[in-house]
Design goal:
about 230 residues; 12 helices; mainly alpha
C-alpha cells in the first residue's frame, strides 16, 4: 500500500493536468448533457452532474480492472516488458501533448471510434435524463468516449501488474478530471484559463515526460529516483 500512494498521487495529477484536454473534448458534451436535463429536474442539476461524472469515473475504474487483469496475465511473460515500454511511450506522448509540443496523442483516439459507434446509440436512448440512476448510467457510457489521454493512462495503470491497483489508479485519474468538468460559469473560465497557462502546461508536461521516462524499464530508474 505505501508503494501505491505515490502512484495514486501521480494518477490524480495526470487527471488534473489533463483537464485542459477534457475541457476541449468533453466540455461541449457536458454542456449538452446539462441541457438534456428536463426543466422540472433543473433544481437537481448538481446531483445529476455529479452522477454523470461518477458514472464516467467508475467506467474508468472498470476498464482499469479489466485491462489490469490482462496485465496480470502477461506479468510473467516477456510481453510484460513490452506493455511497460508502450505505456511509458504513451506517457511521454501525453507529456508532449500537455506541454503543447506535439499532438500525436490525439491520433490514438481513432482506435476507440469503432467501439463508440456501438455505445453512442445506447447513450442516446437515455435522453432526456430524468433520474439519478439514468444519469449514472449515461455517465458510465460516456466514460467509453475515445480519448488518447484515458488510453495512455489506462495502459500505464495496466502495466503495474495488479488488477486492483490498476482500477484504483484509473479511479484516481478520473477524480483528477472532476474539477474542470464540474466547474460552471466564471469558475469554469478561471480553471480553463489556469490550465491553458503556458508555464503550467510546460511544467506539467515535463513532469509527465519524466514519469514516462521513469516507467521505461532500465537502470536509469534508480538515477531518477535518486533525484
Amino acid at each position: 500500500m505505501p508503494d501505491l500512494i505515490p502512484l495514486l498521487g501521480s494518477a490524480l495529477v495526470l487527471g488534473l493536468l489533463g483537464g485542459g484536454h477534457c475541457l476541449g473534448m468533453c466540455g461541449g458534451l457536458m454542456g449538452a448533457l446539462t441541457l438534456a436535463i428536463p426543466p422540472e429536474q433543473r433544481g437537481r442539476r448538481l446531483r445529476l452532474l455529479l452522477a454523470y461524472n461518477l458514472g464516467r469515473v467508475l467506467s474508468y475504474a472498470i476498464a482499469g480492472l479489466l485491462l489490469g487483469l490482462a496485465g496480470v496475465a502477461l506479468a510473467s511473460s516477456p510481453l510484460a516488458t513490452g506493455l511497460r515500454v508502450i505505456a511509458a511511450l504513451l506517457l511521454i506522448a501525453m507529456g508532449l501533448y500537455l506541454a503543447g509540443w506535439w499532438s500525436g496523442l490525439t491520433r490514438v483516439e481513432a482506435l476507440g471510434r469503432g467501439l463508440w459507434r456501438h455505445v453512442q446509440p445506447l447513450a442516446t436512448r437515455l435522453l432526456p435524463v430524468s433520474s439519478l440512476p439514468r444519469a449514472l448510467l449515461l455517465g458510465a457510457l460516456w466514460g467509453w468516449l475515445p480519448c488518447g489521454l484515458v488510453y495512455s493512462t489506462l495502459l500505464w495503470a495496466a502495466s503495474q501488474g495488479d488488477a486492483l491497483h490498476s482500477a484504483a489508479l484509473m479511479l484516481a485519474f478520473g477524480v483528477g478530471t472532476w474539477p474542470v468538468l464540474l466547474a460552471t460559469g466564471l469558475a469554469a473560465q478561471q480553471v480553463g484559463k489556469l490550465l491553458r497557462n503556458r508555464g503550467i502546461r510546460t511544467a506539467g508536461g515535463l513532469l509527465v515526460i519524466l514519469f514516462g521516462l521513469w516507467t521505461l524499464p532500465g537502470p536509469h530508474q534508480h538515477w531518477l529516483m535518486g533525484h
